[in-house]
Design goal:
Length: about 150
């Protein structure tokens, strides 16, 4: 095993691009779909694949819970994506301030926060390639039944 593929070095500059790809997928309309590590990163990114799968499982369960509560209490119905992404943005921004995080985790938290802000207003925050920001599905039912 080479040093750059060691699990202990999972959050190094060598891993940043694959974590960015994972983040972009999780904010895309295909977030509920199975994600595969891009081939150029496959040799050193098994933990990224596991993290994406875990995040997707948590989202499915959160969306299911949200839908159940909304069905039982229609007067309290809210937009799942708006609430989930707002909480995710809050915690991403908070993570930037943690002294215990490595510089690369802080950088990824900043990137994640930027992508969340970008996803919330694609007109004001175009991507560097001018392809527009990712669009959130705004359909909690799209997460339900996926695992």
């Amino acid at each position: 095993m080479s040093p750059s593929s060691a699990p202990a070095l999972d959050w190094t500059v060598d891993q940043f691009e694959v974590w960015q790809c994972a983040e972009d997928h999780l904010l895309s309309a295909q977030a509920k779909d199975t994600w595969q590590v891009p081939p150029q990163y496959a040799a050193r990114a098994a933990s990224v694949q596991r993290a994406v799968s875990l995040i997707q499982t948590i989202r499915v369960r959160a969306a299911t819970f949200h839908a159940d509560v909304s069905a039982k209490q229609p007067e309290k119905k809210t937009d799942f994506d708006a609430e989930y992404m707002a909480a995710l943005l809050y915690h991403s921004l908070r993570a930037i301030t943690y002294d215990s995080l490595s510089p690369f985790k802080v950088l990824l938290a900043a990137y994640s926060a930027w992508r969340l802000i970008q996803a919330s207003d694609p007109v004001s925050f175009p991507t560097p390639t001018n392809q527009g920001a990712p669009q959130l599905s705004h359909n909690p039912a799209s997460y339900i039944g996926q695992s």
